[in-house]
Amino acid sequence: MVNHSKEVQAKLMKGLLDLVVLQFLSSQPMHGYQIITKIRKTFGVYFGPSTIYPLLGLLEKKGYVKSEWNMNSERPRKVYKLTTDGQSLLNFTEDSLNFICHKIGSPGMPRGGLMEEPSSPTALRPLLKKIEEHGPLV
Q: How far is the C-alpha of 112 from the C-alpha of 116, rounded, in Å?
C-alpha cells in the first residue's frame, strides 16, 4: 500500500506541477535548481532539469513568469519571477482546485459526481471555459 500511495502522490504532483511552481514563485523569485530542490524537500518527489526547465520556459512563453539573469552570484543563474498574469492564474487555479476538492469531499454529492449539471454557476464553469479557450495551463 505504501508503494501505491507514493505512485498516486507522484502522479498528482506531475499533474499539478505547474501550479506548484507558480506557488513557489509567488513567495520569492527562484532559479530552476532551487525549484527542483524545494519540490523534492516538500513533496519527496524528484523532477529533474529535463522536466522543470521546459516547464519554466513554457510558463514564461505564456506570460505567467518572467526571467532575468542574476550575475551577482559566483555563477550566473536565470531567476524566475511570477508575473501579474501568473498570480491571477494561480489564484484562479487554487480557487478551482479548492472547489473541486470541496465537491469531492461533500456529503451527499450527486450520483453523477462532478459532471452532473449544477443548478447555479460555480467556480468550475469558468475553469472549463478557460481551458476550452486557451487549452491546458501548460
A: 5
